[in-house]
Design goal:
This protein is α/β, with parallel strands linked by helices. The chain contains 15 helices and five strands.
């Protein structure tokens, strides 16, 4: 509790940095929150506290002893910080407050709450959707195997294009996407239009494949948004992988005993996860940050992970970058082999 109190101004500084990014990825996961025996007095003028009061009272009326709260992650796409936030429900109140004054792209799944935030922003927030979700729905469908393979082949091509574009400059990556990925999306659009009009070989909308196609149809523009912006990834996988960090912790601490406890967890996750993302020795970084804050430091710029790393090169874990590069090279080699075999076939 004391550590989070000391770190609070720095955590707010991290949040402001992420909110200044061109694009922010977001995702959430469940966290069990124990209900208090007596509902605390809350400021009902504050939207977040009003939601807490509403959720607590409904849970008490049903005789519940705990609720499924949520831990949100906000990942800067170009700003290498991960910011966590704790809310009592999967309601748009959390992201709505985070993106209230945001100008940029919100990358996430196709949850309606994100769409509502974008609509209410009068164009300040642009939606980009995760293609991994769309591909997964098609992959998991069982009906219409020939059409399903056709769509999966398209997605293989899109991911192969991204694989080749990773090492390119932003300008060249955008050119590659425009030349090769955009025509694939146009082919997808034409296929969907033709499938909706044809009277033979109709795809039943209630089939799992029909629902997967409807998912793509409903979110087509956000799904291809990344083609227009070289800094946007094709999917939100890297943000979603942050949920593993919450899950590992959840296995140890099991639940949050209070709202304050959940918020403290979010604060410490922000520090540790941001240090990890920048390949730092997490313990060394967090300890030094707290020491400097306790000493009265109010200039937070040197405490940003990449600036701190420049002053503490001994705390950089180079093996993490090596492991990441080796994983990327293996993936690229596998995809290159697949492209070669497809070409020979």
């Amino acid at each position: 509790a004391q550590a989070c109190f000391v770190a609070e101004p720095l955590l707010e500084y991290f949040k402001e940095h992420v909110q200044s990014d061109l694009a922010v990825g977001t995702d959430e996961t469940r966290v069990t929150l124990l209900l208090p025996k007596v509902i605390p007095k809350l400021n009902l003028e504050d939207p977040k506290e009003r939601r807490i009061d509403e959720v607590f009272r409904k849970a008490q009326e049903k005789g519940k002893r705990s609720i499924n709260a949520r831990m949100w992650a906000y990942r800067g796409i170009t700003v290498k910080l991960n910011v966590f936030d704790f809310t009592v429900r999967r309601h748009r109140d959390g992201p709505q407050l985070f993106f209230a004054d945001y100008h940029g792209t919100l990358l996430g799944d196709c949850w309606s709450g994100f769409d509502a935030i974008a609509l209410a922003s009068n164009g300040s927030v642009v939606r980009a959707a995760c293609n991994a979700h769309a591909r997964r729905k098609i992959y998991e469908s069982q009906a219409y195997p020939d059409d399903r393979k056709h769509w999966l082949r398209w997605y293989k091509q899109l991911y192969d294009i991204e694989d080749r574009g990773k090492k390119l400059s932003s300008e060249n990556r955008l050119e590659l996407r425009q030349e090769e990925a955009l025509p694939i999306f146009e082919a997808m659009r034409e296929w969907l239009a033709e499938a909706a009009e044809r009277t033979s070989r109709v795809i039943l909308p209630e089939s799992d494949f029909g629902k997967a196609l409807q998912y793509v149809r409903n979110h087509f523009d956000p799904l291809q948004r990344y083609v227009e912006a070289p800094y946007l990834p094709i999917d939100n996988n890297e943000t979603e992988q942050l949920m593993k960090q919450v899950a590992v912790g959840r296995k140890n601490w099991l639940f949050s005993g209070s709202i304050a406890g959940g918020e403290r967890t979010a604060g410490m996750l922000t520090l540790a996860s941001s240090a990890l993302r920048n390949d730092l020795d997490v313990w060394a970084y967090v300890k030094d940050v707290l020491d400097q804050l306790l000493a009265g430091l109010t200039d937070y710029e040197p405490l940003l992970p990449w600036n701190w790393a420049a002053e503490h090169p001994e705390a950089i874990r180079q093996y993490r970058a090596t492991e990441r590069r080796e994983r990327s090279e293996r993936t690229q080699a596998q995809r290159a082999t697949r492209r070669r075999l497809c070409g020979e076939a």
